[in-house]
Design a protein that fits this description.
The complex is a heterodimer. By secondary structure, chain A is mainly α. Chain A has a domain at 55-175. Chain A has seven helices and two strands, in the order ααββααααα. A two-stranded antiparallel ribbon of chain A has the order 1-2. Chain B is mainly alpha-helical. Chain B has two domains: 49-158, Serine Threonine Protein Phosphatase 5, Tetratricopeptide repeat; 163-338, Serine Threonine Protein Phosphatase 5, Tetratricopeptide repeat (Alpha Horseshoe), CATH 1.25.40.10. Helices cover 68% and strands 1% of the residues of chain B. Chain B is built from 17 helices and one strand. Classes of the chains: A mainly alpha, B mainly alpha. The interface between A and B is large, with 62 and 49 residues.
Chain lengths: 176, 348
């Protein structure tokens, strides 16, 4: 089913805001000046952070992929306890459904965008970039573009659902 | 959603001043010429109030989730273990786990449903009745679970007298129903499983074991898994000196409920009767480890300990049974064996 991207972003706007805020906070952490932040808009991209070029390659990587970890962790944390009454106990309340929605919407925006990928690409093509950064960086770029391609097939939504719903089930299956 | 690195425009004239405020004292070594104050200002690029409030909201939601997490996680673990026990037909453990889960999430359809299933196989009809009332009118999302619950509810109805049975035997409300009345009833209603079983139970009480055996077979031809009939079969077969057959019925009960303390206990008695004292004791002990209050198994354990010459523990078990009337009545049989009033073993 083809649903316009802006509509999905609109429905899952909390994830976009968390993603951009994570970029900004990573910039602040590494003392990188930020010139503009758009936390959410209906256009494409749904949000962005404009910051100074970073000379430290690791920091560039982390600023780009930081939201992946932040959104994943926050989405999983929010949805985890609520997913259990919804999908396991069959006694969910409205609050549980809201938390699952919030968790999925945040986790599904964890994937770095192609813009994030371009930022890493700039780092990798620099001849001064160390081999270890390149070894880690190229697969990351590959995954970013794969994720971007996969979003046509709802991969981002699938990831959000997997984190918010699948993770609790997996945890219970392993540790029960 | 991008993070975009601000490039330095190639064709713009490069002035040696802060690009934001024009201060000539910019901090060197960075792609953008910014004075220390402006650099600090852009590093701490302001987060709008609404985003801060949004972030605070997310933090509060995370806190709520964090508070909910231990309780829900514990319940989910219990439920998962219960389901695993159900899959392995360990209904005794399953029910114990689900009783804990019911206290934590009393309204859960899943917990109530699985509890009804476990209670059925454990013969706990009071719990089935409670769960049946709780589940009345509830909408099931899981059709497979619904089918299982529906099956045990339908089966449970077979364990109790039908309306026809009650109407016909109304006159015997406070009296023992004579066998002739049962015989007339099952002639009229040949598939009324409760009626046939009731007559078989009456025959067992009168020690008319072959007749009871025949009726129990008839019951099982109507419902192959009718647990009360299988239960009586284990005992009847033992009494008519068909130990192998008794063991087969015990194993059939154990295949239905791997933790049926009655089946373990009855099997132990059959083993003891045929002189397999050590095996019998081991099984009776296993039943005791599972449920140390089961009066039938307490009596079996006392017999097993007696036959294995463990008189000290035997006496302790016999003494413990004195505490309640049900255990005491079951223990009478064991006491008769201990005092040689009943000759229990066919092979010494």
């Amino acid at each position: 089913m083809l649903i316009p991207g802006f509509l999905i972003s609109l429905l899952t706007f909390p994830g976009v805001i968390v993603h951009e805020l994570a970029h900004q906070l990573f910039c602040r952490w590494f003392k990188v000046p930020v010139f503009k932040v758009v936390y959410f808009q209906t256009g494409n991209p749904a949000g962005y952070v404009l910051h100074e070029t970073v000379s430290n390659k690791w920091q560039t990587m982390l600023i780009s992929v930081g939201p992946f970890f932040v959104n994943t962790i926050i989405g999983a944390f929010i949805a985890f306890p609520a997913a259990l009454p919804v999908f396991t106990f069959d006694n969910a309340t409205v609050a549980d459904y809201l938390l699952v929605y919030l968790g999925v919407s945040i986790a599904m925006h964890a994937f770095p965008s192609t813009g994030d990928g371009k930022a890493i690409w700039q780092v990798l093509k620099d001849s001064e970039t160390s081999l270890i950064v390149k070894i880690i960086g190229y697969p990351v770029i590959g995954l970013i573009y794969l994720g971007s391609l996969g979003s046509f097939f709802w991969l981002d939504v699938a990831y959000g659902v997997a984190i918010a719903v699948g993770l609790p089930k997996l945890f219970i299956a392993i540790f029960a | 959603m991008d993070n975009t690195q601000e490039p330095i425009a190639e064709n713009t004239p490069v002035e040696n001043v802060c690009i934001n405020c024009g201060n000539p004292d910019f901090v060197p070594g960075y792609p953008n010429k910014l004075c220390a104050d402006c650099r600090e200002k852009f590093i701490n690029f302001p987060i709008p109030l609404w985003v801060k409030l949004f972030g605070a909201g997310i933090a509060i939601v995370m806190l709520i989730s964090f508070i909910w997490l231990p309780g829900n996680l514990k319940t989910a673990m219990i439920l998962s273990r219960a389901e695993s026990n159900e899959a392995h037909h360990n209904y005794f453990t399953e029910q114990q786990e689900l009783e804990k889960a019911r206290k934590l999430i009393p309204g859960s359809i899943d917990v109530q449903s699985h509890l009804a299933i476990a209670a059925f196989y454990n013969g706990d009809f009071q719990t089935i009745d409670t769960m049946s009332s709780s589940l009345q009118g509830k909408k099931f999302e899981d059709t497979s679970l619904y089918n299982k619950v529906d099956y045990v509810m339908r089966q449970t109805r077979e364990y109790f007298p039908s309306d026809t049975f009650n109407t016909i035997f109304k006159q015997y409300k406070h009296a023992i129903i004579p066998d002739t009345a049962y015989q007339r009833f099952i002639k009229q209603f040949p598939t009324d499983i409760y009626g046939i079983y009731s007559l078989a139970a009456s025959y067992v009480n009168q020690e008319k074991y072959p007749a009871a055996d025949s009726l129990l077979s008839r019951t099982l031809s109507i419902d192959v898994d009718f647990i009360p009939a299988l239960t009586l079969k284990t005992m009847v077969k033992r009494e008519i000196n068909q130990p192998d057959s008794s063991i087969i019925y015990c194993n059939r009960l154990l295949a239905i409920n791997n933790q049926s303390v009655f089946a373990m206990s009855s099997k132990a008695r059959t083993l003891l009767k045929t002189g397999k004292n050590k095996e019998g004791l081991k099984l009776a002990q296993s039943g005791f480890d599972l449920d140390n209050t089961n009066p039938y198994n307490l009596a079996t354990l006392a017999i097993a300990l007696h036959l294995n010459n463990n008189f000290k523990q035997r006496d302790a078990i016999v003494k413990s049974a004195e505490k309640d009337s049900v255990s005491k009545s079951y223990m009478l049989y064991a006491k008769d064996i201990i005092s040689n009033k009943i000759k229990f073993q066919t092979k010494p």
